[in-house]
Structures are given as structure tokens and as C-alpha cells.
Sequence to fold (452 residues):
Amino acid sequence: MNTSFSYRLRVLACDGCGAAVELPHGGGHGRCHRCGSPMVAPMRPETAVPRSPPMQEQVRMTHLRQQDGRPQMRPPGLEALVSPTGEIDAWKLGEARQVWGATRAHLRSQPSDLAAAERLVFLTMALSNAMAGSGDELGLRALYEGALEVLALPRHRQLMRGYLARNAARLGDLESAQAWLAGCDPGSDDLQTDSVYRITQAYIATATNDPPSVLRALGGSEVDVPIHDTMDPIAVVLRANAWERMGNVEVARGMLARFMTSQGGLGAAVESVAKVMPAHWQVCAQSLQGARMEHRRHVAKRAGSGAGAGWVLLLSGLAVAVVFLGGTISDPPDAGELATGPLLLGLLFAVGLPAGLGLLGLRMIRGAKRQKIIAESGLQGQARVLALNRTGTEINDVPVMRVDVEVSVAGRAPFRASTKKLMQPHEASMLIGREVPILWHPKYPDEVVLEV
Ligand SMILES: [Zn+2]
Fold:
């Protein structure tokens, strides 16, 4: 079987334009058929990952757990090309490809430049995310193998071989999937390296419809085995799918919903992970819809939670009025007092403060109700965060921020909308420029609910 991810082929990407070019294992000269750049390849290098020395399993697991919960950081030098979370804007794809090629060429002569290796790995991941589902299988293959051949660190090689193995399995080429995996390290105490091995094992077991092996690799629940943050969504989907295949749809649905809700914006990641798996695998076919609905109910509840604070304001307004009125009735002012300033001030206070608090409270209750409707029955979409500004309101010292976004919803041209959200200033600054999943309802076109 010679698929685009066949282990027997050698496919490298042209450093100039990224086109896939098949090259002989023994190396030699070639020419890119797309841009005409000359290509020189040495002999196909040995890219197997060296095995870690044997280690007590309990010690290894402790090491792995200590590394969990650390997000992948974008390496310095890629700020202008890739977002912190690894997305490349469509109009920068060409430039990103060029930088990928230049970094790869540099590593060929300077294999020990670790900073360049980190950049190549991050760029490879970002470019492959942008290419996923495009149908350019050979281009994807060339990207991974091109990177693999110039990377020296075990962690980096394992990452590339994992991609190659999973893509081979996705195309039904199980022999090649096993061959790529056979050159991986099964016993690393580096979390990313270990997670790649587990995810790839689980992926191949999913392709061969072997759910018990999936659960052996990933654990029966999300707390059994630590998984690197970048691979959490795929682990959750494969694990839930294994439970579903074994007849336990309820467990599968619960796991998916829990992940969508606890990880905020990653709810959408679960959906996109499931979408790029082969349709005939029917991954989470019975549990995903239910999980989505359960997650929506959570979002709606959270979106409606501002009503509570609104009622508190409204009621404190009323309380001030009652206390003042009560005081006035039990100790009525005499005629002399009526004409003096203090009472006038008191009156202002008794009317003005409750009215102010009450109006603010009512606005918050109405806003929360709108947000709840949008979250419950709105459409899903994406939005880019354009600006964040303090509204001046603070609740328990946390500022209410106004978030301006540009919304993309299927079937409509992009448009501006906004929302208000309680947020610490440092959380807010991380959102600027980011793409976030949102919910939007045509009934309130200027407003969105953030799913983060
Ligand atoms: Zn080319």
C-alpha cells in the first residue's frame, strides 16, 4: 500500500515553495516541479528516537504529572507570523512557508541550534493545523518528514513521527503507522514525548476498532494519565469514543461535556478534532451532540449569572430607601428642620441612591437575560478580539470589561459586536487579537456571548 504517508516513500518539502517532492532514499539531486528550485538531499537519515533508559513506572508517572498543565509557548522570533496559540492568518501562510524552509535549511548546516529547532517545530505544527482538512496529503507529509530529517532532539523527532504515524492510520495505512511508531520512544519521562506515544497508540487502536487498547494507552478517565495540554482535546475525543464503542454512551457524553465546559474555549477544539478524523470511524457519533447540548446549558447558566449581582444592587437600592423612610417615619422632622439643608441632602440620598442602584441592577438583570437567550439558542461562530476597555463597573474588585469583537458566522459577512465580561486585566490582555469561539443571536445582532 503506497499512501501519502507510506513509510517506504521519502517525501520532502521544497525549501522554496513547500511543494512535496519525492526523493530517493540514497539521496541525490532533484528539482522542485512547482518552483524549479534545486533540491539536494543527503541519504535518508536515521530518525528513530533513542529509547529512554528503563525507569520505575511510578517514578516516571510522577515526573510526567509534574509537567502537566503547562501550555505550549510560542518560541521567540515568530511573533509576527504566528499567534500565541499557533494560528497563522491566511495572508501570512506564504511567508510562514518561506520562514519554515529557511529555518530547515539553516538546521541542516547547524543541527545543534536548539532555538531554531524549536521554531521549526512550532511552525510545522502551525502550518499543519492550517493545512488540516485541505486534502493536500502529500504536502502535509512533506512538511512532517522534511522537519523530521533535520531535527535532532528526541522530543522533536517523536512529535514528527507521531504526526506521520497518525496520518498514515487516518488514511488506512496501518503498516506505515506501525513503522513510524516503532521508531518512537515508549518510555520517556518527558510529558510531550510520552503523550505523543500514547495518543498515537490510541489513534491506531481507534483505526483498528480496538477500544480496550485506547483506554489502556490513555487511561479510562481524564485524571488517570497526564496528557500534554496541546494533546488534551484529541485524548478526550479518542477516550470518549472508546467508551462509546464499548456501549457506554453516557460515560462518553459526560466526558466530552465536562471537557468542553471546564476548558472554556477548548469546546470548539473537541469538535474540530472529531471533524478531521475519517468519517467512517464515526467518532463519538452518539455522544457528541448530547455533550454539545449539555455544554450549551452550562454556558447559558454562566451567561445568565450576572442577574444575581443585578438583583443584589436592586435590592440594596430598595433597602436604602426603606431604612431612610423608616427613620423619617419614626422620627418625623419638625417644621424648622424641613427648611434646612441636611434634610434636603437626605432626600436626595434617599431617592437618588436607590434609583441609581436600582437602574444599574435592572440593566444588569436585563443584560444577563439577553446573554442567556444568546447562549441557549444562538448560532456558533468565531470572533477576533479587537479591543478591551474597562466599563468603570467593578464587582468584588474585578473589573467589568467591554470586549469588542469582529464576528464570523456562517453565511454572513464579518461584522462588529461586543459583550461585557468580568475579567482580571491580565486575562483581558491575553485575549487581544485572539480568535475565540462565540455564540450570536440575530435577535441581538450587536452582542455576543464568549465561550471562554
Ligand atoms: Zn518549490
The beta strands are 11-13, 20-22, 28-31, 38-41, 379-395, 398-408, 415-422, 435-440, 448-450. The first strand starts at residue 11 and ends at 13. The chain has four domains: 1-185, 209-303, 306-366, 378-450. Residues 1-185 form one domain.
